[in-house]
Design goal:
Blueprint: H1 30-68, H2 74-94, H3 105-131, H4 134-140, H5 142-155, H6 162-181, H7 187-215, H8 225-246, H9 249-255, H10 262-288, H11 291-300, H12 302-312, H13 319-340
Helix pairs in contact: 1-3, 1-10, 2-3, 2-8, 2-10, 3-7, 3-8, 4-12, 4-13, 5-6, 5-7, 6-13, 11-13
Amino acid sequence: MASRSFGVKIPSNNDEVDVETGRTDKDRGKAFRSKRVLTIHNQALLSGLAYCFSSCSMILVNKYVLSSYDFNAGISLMLYQNFVSVVIVSFLNFCGIITTEPLTWRLIKVWLPVNIIFVGMLVTSMFSLKYINVAMVTVLKNVTNVMTAVGEMYLFKKHHDNRVWASLFLMIISAISGGFTDLSFHAIGYTWQFINCFLTASYSLTLRRVMDIAKQVTKSGDLNEFSMVMLNNTLSLPLGILLIFVFNEVDYLSQTPLLGSPAFWLVITFSGFLGLAISFTSMWFLHQTGATTYSLVGSLNKIPLSVAGIVLFNVPTSLENSASIFFGLLAGVLFARAKMR
């Protein structure tokens, strides 16, 4: 399904508009051209801000729930967030605002392996956030880029230039130095984060192939973003329930007083909306700009997130640790620029 233009009129072939520069055909009037440029730039700015806000807020809210509330049921939190996403997408589909592919057994069997990786990615992210501060999580996430690049090289025979490998090397150095200088170092949290990096890289490497296979078993022959959101979140529900029993979160949930707090329910429901908002805003932002700007903003987005994580949660830090965090964030920006070229 084509992405919505969110109020921006899509130009015809005779009236092309570059969403990065705002240029139109020369035969257009100057006043109309200025108005179109302003409209497009406003849409790009608005979608970019929405994407940054939702992605940063999601991590900060999860950290707040797991640490400030001392909520020891990360799988249950993930399960509830996915349930909220399923309810919202189902409602939008029922109202005719979006369309999703019906869940058939053939589609489920094709998508289930990648969904297991998806659930593992979310669960390990929850576990790592419980023990690691937000700034170090953002730096350690750079390890995912290293694993993905190596996976692309061995699985898809893709070659990277020296700029990419140089930035990847800087990411590894920043992760190692950040761990050694982290005043709140927690071995369990770091272990969960590295597992999360491996699962995230695996998800990105297998998703493209699974998407191509899944399209062949859908009724429309296509698989839009909303259908993928619906697939991932719906299939994660039974798997999440199983994991709740495996990790014995049932006993904790039956005893914790947090479930009787309306404020707590408000916060975790808000986190569910944020999870879905990331899917919507990222698609909107990518439509309004392009892969180049989207990739660069995603890297720059980690800088205010790291600062906010340190300030909001009063994270003890040192000059050496702050330098390693900044070094890692800079390496992420260099990696994005190298991939663009």
